[in-house]
Write a structure and sequence with these properties.
mainly beta, eight-stranded antiparallel β-barrel, elongated
């Protein structure tokens, strides 16, 4: 149910923003949708005792850049297991602040909420992270990021990702 709620809210925000801009709102920005795929290198780290788990999964990202400095983005990922811990899925919605360094290179920060489901637990919480992208073609970029998806009282769940993004 939590995944459905996060997905529905994300879709509503993206559609509302795109719709308002497309209907001639006072801002003259041209929304730019994008879709990306990444290798997801995740780590579940308990605060006490042994039991750190890490593995590799996949992540899909999609969003809409409203201008050169702001986008809304959604993540859907999963896969990978380490012993008794398996990442069933993660799903989240984020605001993305973008800092263009050159026309082809950008740094960005993410803040939002994520639901993460493991075999051992299912949690939703505040997420934050940052990354960089470099254009290799007019509509294609390579990028990497690091996101703290969950910071719970008894563990943290982080992931580093490397992948490609296609802008429509």
């Amino acid at each position: 149910m939590k995944t459905f709620t996060i997905s529905a809210v994300s879709a509503a925000l993206l559609l509302a923003g795109t719709s308002a801009l497309a209907q001639g709102s006072p801002m003259n920005y041209d929304p730019s949708p994008y879709l990306g795929g990444d290798a997801l290198f995740w780590e579940l780290d308990p605060d006490r005792g042994p039991g750190k788990a890490d593995s590799t999964g996949l992540r899909l990202r999609g969003g809409v850049a409203f201008n050169d400095y702001f986008a809304l983005e959604g993540h859907l990922g999963g896969g990978g297991s380490d012993g008794s811990v398996e990442l069933d899925y993660l799903a989240g919605a984020y605001a993305k602040g973008i800092l263009p360094i050159t026309p082809d290179f950008r740094l960005y920060g993410l803040a939002g909420f994520t639901e993460v489901d493991f075999d051992v637990d299912d949690e939703t919480g505040f997420s934050w992270g940052g990354g960089a992208e470099f254009d290799v073609a007019p509509n294609l970029a390579l990028g990497a990021d690091y996101v703290r998806y969950l910071d719970e009282s008894n563990y943290t769940f982080d992931a580093a990702s490397v992948g490609m993004t296609f802008r429509f």
